[in-house]
Specification:
By secondary structure, the chain is mostly helical. It is 73% helix and 0% strand. It is built from 16 helices and no strands. α2 packs antiparallel against α3, α3 runs parallel beside α5 and α6 runs antiparallel to α7. The longest helix has 19 residues.
């Protein structure tokens, strides 16, 4: 059965290549027919579990669609190729090639006056490449957010910015993450989603403290007091307590806040920042108050006498 499907696939490939050939009587390649043949070949290869070859056939189909500017079916072919790459580990080496096709399609969408479709395509591309290349995924999510922002689709834009911010944290590119989070927060403020502004303030504080920038972290909290409902909220109390503990190098206080449900149940990348936060200089734990007088008081006095026994030299 598998062998039969493979033979059938090769027949479709041959027909597709024939459609692309030109001659004295045929001046232009027949991209539509070629795309159809490559699509049929890909299905045959997939049924035969020849995923690498199925991926190649889908990419050939996609290339035909880009040449013929039939963008409405282009993404389907690319997504199918991406699925084959997920199934086949060796095919993942070709993933950057697939992403290039998607970016090319997005340019076509923009030129054809359908920026929303371009942004959605970039989002899909980000999801495809994220398991193997976080840096490229960040780039694609930010581009998609930019397209939506230009179209005043802020809710869609901020969601994609959020994906990019989390990946920047995962990549430990914290300076860039701080900038991205501020942009997210500004967008949420513009659409009046204040609870999300509170969450972004908490994320900002964690990022800035990991950057060892207490001043920037404190500034984020101070600015957030202008947001309706922030003052006295669970978020603001937690951040004030965290900043106080960090400033006073109180390890216990920082630990309590960072392991509270409010921070532990944030998005995973920010939760990891919380539980890994350490106070400057290794911190200190609050010592229990010493009892007044008694044996302990006498011992302290004796210790002070011993310290200077034999003179100051």
């Amino acid at each position: 059965m598998a062998a039969q499907k493979i033979n059938e696939a090769h027949e479709h490939i041959s027909k597709g290549e024939k459609c692309l050939k030109t001659s004295f009587t045929k001046w232009k390649p027949d991209f539509d027919s070629a795309a159809s043949e490559y699509s049929k070949a890909a299905v045959c290869f997939k049924n035969a579990k020849q995923y690498d070859q199925a991926k190649d056939a889908y990419l050939k189909e996609a290339e035909c669609h880009t040449e013929n500017k039939t963008v409405h079916v282009f993404l389907r072919a690319i997504e199918q190729a991406g699925m084959m790459m997920k199934v086949s580990l060796s095919a993942q080496k070709k993933m950057p090639e697939a992403i290039q096709y998607i970016e090319k399609a997005c340019m076509m969408y923009m030129e054809n006056g359908t920026p929303d479709t371009a942004a959605m395509a970039l989002d899909r591309a980000g999801k495809l490449i994220e398991p193997i290349n976080l840096e490229k995924a960040v780039d694609l999510y930010q581009k998609a957010a930019g397209v939506f922002e230009n179209e005043d689709r802020l809710r869609q834009a901020v969601e994609l910015l959020g994906k990019a911010s989390r990946l920047l944290v995962r990549l430990k590119r914290l300076d860039e993450a701080a900038v991205a989070l501020q942009k997210e927060k500004n967008m949420y403020k513009e659409i009046e989603n204040f609870p999300m502004c509170f969450k972004k303030t908490t994320a900002q504080v964690l990022v800035h403290l990991h950057r060892a920038d207490y001043v920037a972290a404190d500034k984020c909290v101070r600015e957030s007091y202008s947001l309706p409902g922030y003052s006295g909220s669970e978020d603001s109390v937690a951040m004030e307590t965290l900043l106080q503990g960090y400033d006073e190098q109180d390890e216990d206080q920082v630990f309590r806040v960072c392991n509270s449900p409010l921070l532990k149940y944030m998005d995973n990348d920010y939760a990891k920042l919380a539980i890994s936060l350490r106070v400057p200089g290794g911190g200190k734990k609050k010592a229990p108050a010493a009892p007044q007088g008694g044996a302990s008081g006498a011992q302290t006095a004796n210790d002070e006498e011993d310290e200077y026994e034999g003179g100051l030299c």
